[in-house]
Amino acid sequence: MIEHPGILQPGSVIGLLGGGQLARMLVLAGHPLGFKFMVLDPDPEAPAAQVGADHLPCSFTDKNALGELTKQCDLVSYEFENVDADSVEWMEQRVDLPQGSQMLRTAQHRLREKRAIRDLGIEVTGFHEVRNLKQLEQAFEAFGSVLLKTVTGGYDGKGQQRILKKSECKSAFESLHQEGTSLIAEQFQPFERELSVVVARSRSGEIRSFPVSENLHRQNILTICRIPARISGQVEKEANRISACLAEGLGLVGVMGVEMFLLPDGSLLVNEIAPRPHNSGHFTMDSCETSQFQQHLLAVSGWPLGPTHIMKPALMLNLIGDQQDKLLQNLKLLPEGAKLHLYGKKEVRPGRKMGHLNLSMENPSELLETLIKLQVWDQDSLERMLN
Ligand code: AMP
């Protein structure tokens, strides 16, 4: 691993593997610090390439492009988990890459990830490795209700299937199994709330967490976050303890999203980790002194971390698929102080994250009424998060 001497100086170039919305918001957060950016992303219209970053429109396995990034940049970071870990390991030998390839290997493989978390003494959802139909049926018998997932490549609910009856095991197995790879059968958790913490760890080992977010998913995609979460002080303390323990134990440098399930008995299980800025941390852009994107850059660049407390209660709503267009038709109904963040994506696809809306939430019932009138998010979701 290449060590960077001291703090990264203004004028330095940060390379980003991935040029999606997270990279775009990293670039925007890095400009006031004087950093320049180069992103590698095969999409010619990559969101990060539209905001003043140099762009290598190449595949993540293109050795020439990876080599170019290592040569042109003073430091390299990744914004999503589905980059090839071998390529990142190769780069790590040649350029300062503070997040490291090891963290990536752990986070991009659900079995490895769950085992690493459990090895640190932290509870995860019950799981079994599944190589054949018999093992899946055994897992189903042990758990009663199962969520079958691919071990790699799944995000936003892709590569997952719920199994409610033993007779459904065969078709679920056949639809997800690929020769030579395992699947993971997770116990289906009837959780009370989904929570997450964005935790940062600096190069010198300082750890700071943003407030716990309460998250609502629809069709497995994050839809709304409420911050602070409606939880007891004890649960909040435990969520922070777990996040700090994972940051320390896994050797995090940068920010990481830790997704958790709060069970009816008040205990917490970790669902997954994402060693990069996280969708549930977008509220920090408008409600905290330091955004998660700025914090990530401070952490990887060897600068001291920024303050993480929340200045006002917040609501973050994702704009998914056609929700951006619906909102644009009703802009005059937006509540005062609403902060709209759009990612510059031209093509609308179902399930595609187009942008998000940050709101402060001094008066939840008034806000609920306004948001219902906007007709962008379904009333049931809004009532769940604002009542
Ligand atoms: P994931 O891709 O693992 O983050 O899953 C996406 C969403 O599916 C989560 O945010 C939960 O809402 C749901 N989910 C995932 N795993 C489980 C589980 N073991 N039990 C219940 N719900 C789950």
Kindly describe this structure.
The protein is an alpha+beta fold and 387 residues long. The protein folds into 3 domains: 13-97, Rossmann fold, CATH 3.40.50.20; 126-187, 2-Layer Sandwich (Dna Ligase, domain 1); 193-386, ATP-grasp fold, B domain (D-amino Acid Aminotransferase, Chain A, domain 1, 2-Layer Sandwich), CATH 3.30.470. It is built from 13 helices and 17 strands. The chain has helices at residues 21-30, 63-72, 85-92, 101-107, 110-119, 133-143, 169-176, 233-249, 284-287, 292-300, 323-328, 364-374, 379-386; strands spanning 13-17, 36-40, 54-56, 75-78, 127-130, 146-150, 160-163, 183-187, 193-201, 207-209, 213-218, 221-227, 254-262, 268-274, 314-320, 339-342, 353-360. Strands 9, 10, 11, 12, 13, 14, 15, 16 and 17 form a 9-stranded antiparallel beta sheet that branches. It is globular. The structure holds adenosine monophosphate.
Distance between the termini: 50 Å
Strand content: 15-25%
Number of helices: 13
Mean pLDDT: 95
Number of domains: 3
Name the shape in a single word: globular
- The fold-level CATH name of the largest domain is D-amino Acid Aminotransferase, Chain A, domain 1
Radius of gyration: 21 Å
Biggest sheet features: 9 strands, antiparallel
CATH domain class name of the largest domain: Alpha Beta
Task: Report low-confidence residues grouped into runs of 5 or more.
Answer: none
Helix-strand sequence? EHEEHEHHHEHEEHEEEEEHEEHHEHEEHH
List of distinct ligands in this structure:
adenosine monophosphate
